């Protein structure tokens, strides 16, 4: 009896990774049937620091760039350790790697990199709005992609970026929708296969079957590529799955969800 049970358990453990992988492939290639697809949209990624795009947003960038125009706005030079100039260059190279049409890097005295540096909602909103106006001369931004209210890693600069984008969105002066990258619990953050396997259809998902693009882009951020970021870009769920809450232009709904 026990022998049979152990045999079945052994087979189940051996088969599980294959089943999981097949389900992940199935999810990746059928997601478009169950969720909104976007084509010929002008999409602006708003991040706080050089490397946020590589560490957190790679799966969605790689999918959305196939049929949309992507732009990148980074609200600091990442000068917390005095490496701002180097990190600007690294970000421009990473943006080129990902195929962004343009990459704008802000160096504003009120928006300096650091957990202890408080970013006001007004300062963030002003920069976002300035860039929307600047881009409006050429085209209209249809979607802004950014952090959710918890800021993924809880970094105060990430949270401020969300709040600033939300403030511009709630003004309803510009007709863009917002994608907010869902902050995962610590367990889900490092259960990448679980995320891909279980991805439901209530969120907007973008999947990658390997961490290649996240890792490759992090290599470009050479000054930041220390051992724990190497591990993060291989094992974190954000290298494989981006799950977004979508906010269309309905301010009331947005305010309720953003609480
Ligand atoms: Zn960051």
UniProtKB/TrEMBL annotation:
The EC number(s) this enzyme carries: 3.5.1.89
Pfam family of the protein (one): PIG-L
Protein's GO biological process: GPI anchor biosynthetic process
Gene Ontology cellular component list: endoplasmic reticulum; membrane
Gene Ontology MF: a single term: N-acetylglucosaminylphosphatidylinositol deacetylase activity
InterPro entries reported for this sequence: GlcNAc_PI_deacetylase-related, LmbE-like_dom_sf
Assigned protein family: Belongs to the PIGL family.
Protein name: N-acetylglucosaminylphosphatidylinositol deacetylase
UniProt lineage: Eukaryota, Sar, Alveolata, Ciliophora, Intramacronucleata
């Amino acid at each position: 009896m026990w022998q049979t049970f152990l045999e079945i358990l052994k087979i189940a453990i051996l088969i599980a990774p294959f089943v999981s992988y097949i389900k992940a492939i199935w999810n990746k290639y059928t997601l478009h049937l169950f969720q909104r697809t976007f084509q010929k949209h002008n999409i602006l990624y708003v991040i706080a620091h050089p490397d946020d795009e590589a560490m957190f947003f790679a799966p969605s960038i790689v999918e959305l760039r196939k049929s949309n125009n992507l732009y990148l706005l980074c609200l600091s030079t990442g000068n917390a350790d005095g490496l701002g100039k180097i990190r600007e260059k690294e970000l421009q190279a990473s943006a080129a790697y990902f195929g962004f049409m343009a990459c704008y890097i802000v160096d504003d005295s009120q928006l300096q990199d650091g957990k202890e540096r408080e970013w006001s909602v007004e300062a963030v909103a002003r920069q976002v709005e300035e860039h929307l106006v600047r881009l409006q001369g050429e085209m209209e931004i249809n979607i802004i992609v950014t952090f959710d209210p918890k800021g993924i890693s809880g970094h105060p600069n990430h949270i401020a970026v969300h709040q600033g984008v939300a403030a511009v969105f709630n003004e309803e002066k510009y007709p863009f929708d917002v994608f907010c990258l869902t902050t995962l619990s610590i367990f889900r953050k490092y259960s990448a296969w679980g995320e891909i396997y279980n991805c439901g259809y209530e969120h907007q998902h973008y999947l990658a079957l390997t961490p290649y693009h996240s890792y490759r882009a992090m290599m470009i951020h050479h000054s930041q590529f220390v051992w724990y970021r190497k591990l993060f870009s291989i094992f974190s769920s954000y290298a494989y799955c981006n799950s977004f809450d979508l906010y269309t232009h309905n301010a009331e709904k947005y305010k309720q969800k953003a609480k």
